[in-house]
Design brief:
about 270 residues; two-stranded antiparallel ribbon
Length: about 270
C-alpha cells in the first residue's frame, strides 16, 4: 500500500507543474466548486430530492483525457551490426507533449449507505501518446542530435471499480472523493513501429467530483488521476520487428508506466 501511495503522490505532484494540468483543473474548479462556495450560506429548494435514495443509479458519460507514460530508459546498449561488429548506442525516449483524447462510457452506481457507494463505469478511451527518441551518439550535418518520433495511438476499454464517498448534500450540490482499481484492455493492433504496449494493464486511480442536481437530471463533473501498476511495455516486440535497425529504439526502454488525467461528465 505504501508503494501505491508513493506512486500516486509522485504522479499528482508532477501534474501540478504541467501547464496542461492547469487547463483542466482551473475550468473544473470554476465550473464545479465556485458556485458551491458562493452560495454556501443560502438555502434553496432542492431539485430531485429523493434521487440518492435509489439503490441503483444508471447513466452515461462523456469526457476528455490526457495520456502520459513514464519510461525507464536502459542507457548505453551494445548493438551488433550486420557485419558482426559491435557498437555502443544510447537512445533516450520521452513523451514530450500531451495529446487530448476522447472518452465515452456508461455508469452503474450501487448505493451502500448515505455516504458510500460502489461504482462501475465501463469506458472507451480514444487517444495517443507522442514519443520522441533522441539518439545521443548520432548527430546530423548541423551537429544536432538525431531524433525520431512516434504517435502511439491507443484505444482502451476500461472497467473501473471505484468506492465513492460523498459529503452531505447542500442545496443542489454534493462534492465527493473517489478511488479504486481500473483494469484496461488495449484494443490497438500490433504494428511495426518502435514501441508497442501490452494488451492488458491495471491502474490505481483517485479523483474528486461534485453531484449537480438539475431540474430533470443529475450532472456529475469529475476529475480523476490514474497510474499504471504494471509494466505497460511489450518487451517481446523487438523480436517481431522485420527491420532490425529499429530494435535499438525498441530496446532503449525496459519498463514504462502509463498515466492518465480524465475529466468526465456523467449524466444520470
Amino acid at each position: 500500500m505504501k508503494l501505491i501511495y508513493n506512486k500516486v503522490y509522485s504522479c499528482l505532484r508532477m501534474k501540478f507543474t504541467s501547464p496542461s494540468w492547469l487547463h483542466i483543473v482551473l475550468p473544473f474548479y470554476l465550473f464545479t466548486f465556485l458556485p458551491f462556495t458562493s452560495s454556501a450560506q443560502e438555502r434553496k429548494p432542492q431539485n430531485k430530492p429523493y434521487i440518492d435514495l435509489r439503490p441503483m443509479h444508471f447513466g452515461i458519460s462523456v469526457g476528455f483525457h490526457m495520456q502520459d507514460i513514464e519510461f525507464q530508459n536502459v542507457g548505453p546498449q551494445v548493438v551488433t551490426l550486420e557485419d558482426g561488429t559491435t557498437v555502443t548506442e544510447t537512445v533516450v525516449i520521452d513523451q514530450d507533449n500531451w495529446n487530448p483524447g476522447f472518452s465515452v462510457g456508461v455508469l452503474a452506481d450501487q448505493r451502500l449507505s448515505n455516504h458510500f457507494s460502489v461504482r462501475l463505469s465501463p469506458t472507451m478511451h480514444f487517444g495517443a501518446k507522442h514519443l520522441t527518441f533522441r539518439h545521443i551518439n548520432r548527430t546530423d550535418p548541423e551537429g544536432r542530435i538525431v531524433t525520431a518520433t512516434q504517435d502511439l495511438k491507443n484505444t482502451y476499454i476500461a472497467f473501473p471499480i471505484n468506492l465513492k464517498f460523498a459529503a452531505e448534500r447542500f442545496n443542489n450540490y454534493r462534492p465527493y472523493i473517489i478511488g479504486g482499481i481500473n483494469p484496461m484492455i488495449n484494443l490497438t493492433s500490433k504494428s511495426q513501429d518502435y514501441i508497442q504496449l501490452k494488451r492488458y494493464d491495471t491502474m490505481v486511480e483517485v479523483g474528486i467530483g461534485c453531484d449537480l442536481y438539475l431540474r430533470f437530471f443529475k450532472l456529475i463533473p469529475e476529475l480523476k488521476f490514474s497510474y499504471s501498476l504494471m509494466n505497460a511495455i511489450d518487451s517481446g516486440h523487438a523480436d517481431e520487428l522485420t527491420d532490425s535497425s529499429l530494435r535499438v529504439y525498441t530496446n532503449a526502454v525496459n519498463a514504462g508506466h502509463s498515466k492518465m488525467v480524465t475529466l468526465t461528465f456523467y449524466f444520470e
